[in-house]
Amino acid sequence: MSAPIPERADPVGDGRLGGRRLGVFALIGACLVMDGFDVQAIGYVAPALIRDWGIRSADMAPVFGAGLLGLFLGSLLLGMAADRLGRRPVLLGATAFFSVFTLLTGHAGSLAELVALRFLAGLGLGAIMPNATALVGEYSPGRLRVASMMIVTNGFLVGAMLGGFLAAWLIPARGWRAVFTVGGIVPLALLVPMFLWLPESRQFLALRGRRERIAVPIPRLFRRGRAAGTALLWVANFTNVLTAYFVASWLPTVVRDAGHPTRTAVLVGTAVQAGGAIGTLAMGLLMQRTGFVPVLTACFAGAALNLALVGQPGLPLPLLFAAAFLAGWGIFGGQPGLNALAATYYPTDLRSTGIGAALGVGRFGAILGPVVAGALLARQWTGQELFQAAAGPALVSTAVVLALRRVLGPRGEAAGTGPDLEGRMQPGERSGPTAG
């Protein structure tokens, strides 16, 4: 079901950022805040849950894995669904779905139930980012499109940060189950204003008649000159998400093992998330002016340098915080940039599929990153060696973005890949119902 949009509300190419657009962005941003909160919730409650149930830490591995598998499948399958059904119905349905199963997670009574519920919640959670990114891009004025996508989708990182603070207060007061109660009730409440005021994108509606007669399979991401760009976007997502989860999972532990108090270790981990949230805002405006390639290249190269610095023994505490902050700026701030790049690279009828597939591939990195770090620690690697290793994937991300320059041009602008976000045809793309 699509909400009607008055003709004056969202004229394609309108350069104004009026109250209606800002209201829509606020709704999408709030949904992404809860997406970030609920994705990270299981990590925040795990220590209390382990104590409550008297289980081993290793017993939580299937729970974490089930959630990530759900995120992968949700990103991929519901990204494709949105290119057939629309951004609005998929966002509404996915929000309702993850809200219900997040609420039910708070009532789980066994590990088997927890595994099943985290998988099901993950399916809905995985659909939010690709469709939110696509809708923001398609609803933004052209001159602010990249900045709008970066700033609004920063809600995910904000939610992940706020979730940590809220969990730290809720768990001692109400127990770990209360985290999932909040994580389910708030997005359910958001469904009311979303249903009333969330629009469908005009680009999608303009192509609806043609879309109903074509399929949206993954192979289309590799046709019409898109193969190299798609492959490079997948690699960049994989290496960056691998680095992100590598760091998020083990940085506090490594800092604590280096002799710092637990509180300091947690704050260093928070500095990484804060760097990502602030970096996203700054880089969104910069990318709008200079393009994706220069900004993302500097972003990932700087992350590699600062990751190598984090593990240095005897690093003064202010320098440690600064290095963690800048590493987060590059890694976590760079991910919304990759999402925005994918949104500009693919035409309207492949946009959610393209973003979702790239994020889905990144989820494999999310699974692999903590596992690799754990295996290295088990082999008695020092913190210095561990974070020098973490700098490796960040350097790969840097090289991949530089390679994208050949596909996108020096500024990193998608060219020759299909209709852009305004619906104009790019060179080399054929229009009509069988295009692609």
Major sheet description: none
Share of helical residues:
over 70%
Provide the β-strand percentage band.
Answer: under 5%
So what's the overall shape?
globular
Q: From the structure provided, what is the oligomeric state, counting identical versus distinct chains?
A: single chain
Provide mean pLDDT, rounded.
Answer: 83
Number of strands: 0
> Helix count, per DSSP?
14
Radius of gyration equals: 21 Å
What is the succession of H and E elements?
A: HHHHHHHHHHHHHH
Intertermini distance: 27 Å
Uncertain parts: 1-13, 414-436
Structural class: mainly alpha
What does this protein look like?
The chain is mainly alpha-helical. 76% of the residues lie in helices and 0% in strands. The protein has 14 helices and no strands. The protein has helices at residues 19-53, 61-85, 87-105, 111-139, 145-153, 155-174, 177-197, 202-211, 227-257, 262-290, 292-310, 317-345, 351-378, 383-408. Helix 2 (61-85) packs antiparallel against helix 3 (87-105) and helix 4 (111-139) packs antiparallel against helix 5. The longest helix is centred in the N-terminal third of the chain and has 35 residues, at 19-53. It is globular, with a radius of gyration of 21 Å. The protein starts with 18 loop residues before the first helix and ends in a 28-residue tail after the last helix.
